Amino acid sequence: MKGEENGAAGSGAPSGTQLDLKAGIWLVAVLSTAQLVSQFLRSAISVIAPNLVTELNLSAAGLALLSSSFFLAFAIAQIPVGMLIDRFGPRVTMLWSTVLAVAGCFVFAFGPDLNTLVFGRVLMALGCSSFYVAPLAIYSRWFKPKYFSTVTGIQLGLSGIGLLAATSPLAFAASTIGWRWSFVIVAVLAGLSGLIVLKWVSDDPPGASKPDYKKENLAESLRGLVVVSRTPSFWPIFAMFLTNYAVVITILGLWGGPYLAHVYGYDLETRGFYLLVLALSSMSAAFVWGVADRLFGTYRTPVLIGACLTLAMLIWISLAGKMSPAILMLWFVLYGFVTGYPPLLVGQARAMFPPQFVGRGLTLLNLATMGGVFIFQFATGAVIELMAPNQTVYPLAAYQAAFALQAALLAISIVCYLLARDRAEST
């Protein structure tokens, strides 16, 4: 890949290096294949959840554990992943991660019980733990800061194909070849993604001087995390990262399928279609929201608009009874769109960190993202289990309580985010 546009000083982009637009687009497309796999794996439980409950006799808490274990392991992995990225580079870190992701898919595909499936999910998470932040670290070297949110939005949009694949396509595959063989196919595709990254990705544009990754010891790496955590506005933004992704993936990746099955009686294909609509809306929104910072001249305002609209949508579904099919479809479309603001938050966060701390800074915030999903999924599972103990079909009231809990957690994060400083976009 060739580079053609001068990088901005202090942005992490190599000084004096030209960035070729075609090469940049190809870079984003290639790196998106890895996150595509991650997006599929993290959200694949929802559409097959009723099948898993029946086959393995899972409780609501067990189902929540199966899904949320991925996000807990993913969150825990962020600190070492950030250290590895800053020390050895993002490309090498991604390649080694792919091995674990492939192994996790195989373990999950052939797991006979809940414990084995959870172990498979943990391996998947450890494997996918670099597939988002490592590309962001590469983009910080290839692109000017003012394009960072846009590029992030493009990656989230392209990787949203993984979300799409975890809806109707997975439902179709599960009904034809079974969910187990479906994950065998995903293991093969994950391996191919790693080979694509191996062949076509470099940490820096051709012609740029390679950064000398300092061989930090553990103590020095940990001190870097302390420096990152003391960055002004870090903790208010951290609070928003706890909820910005959790609010959509808790529905798309866990409770959306059971909600459609238990409250509306929809079969596998129909609930797959509704989740496909949600994923399509979310995927499209990433492209739109990714450029909002340039339209508003700020990150903070559009982030607050998106978060408040998301809060309103959660309050709506937590108070509504059983909706008509048309209104239900409208809710899924709107919810996918209003939750598309994370690229703006990532851009705001990226602007806070100097180049040598980008890996650790973004992974520490990604820890919040995935840790927040674990909290949301585990907590909502506990609420549903409390309201429907020892049941495999959960009532509307249980889902309403779960949606209300999500709304309350989001409201807290919005209040915290109000304390964050706004930052003018870098040029």
Descriptive account of the structure:
This protein is an all-alpha fold and 427 residues long. The chain has a single domain (21-203, 224-417), classed as Growth Hormone, Chain: A (Up-down Bundle). It has helices spanning 21-43, 45-56, 60-88, 90-110, 114-128, 133-142, 148-165, 168-176, 179-200, 218-229, 234-244, 246-264, 268-289, 292-296, 300-319, 325-338, 342-350, 358-387, 396-417. It is globular, with a radius of gyration of 21 Å. It starts with 20 loop residues before the first helix and ends in a 10-residue tail after the last helix. The relative contact order is 0.16. Residues 1-18 have low confidence and may be disordered.
Kindly report the CATH topology. Growth Hormone, Chain: A
What is the C-alpha radius of gyration, as a whole number of Å?
Answer: 21 Å
Helices and strands, in order, run as: HHHHHHHHHHHHHHHHHHH
**Helix content class:** over 70%
Question: Low-confidence runs (pLDDT<50, min 5 residues)?
Answer: 1-18
- Quickly count the helices: 19
Using the alpha-carbon principal axes, give the shape: globular
CATH class equals Mainly Alpha
**CATH-defined architecture:** Up-down Bundle
The domain count comes to 1
* CATH homologous superfamily annotation: MFS general substrate transporter like domains
Distance between the termini: 23 Å
Structure classification: mainly alpha
What is the count of β-strands?
A: 0
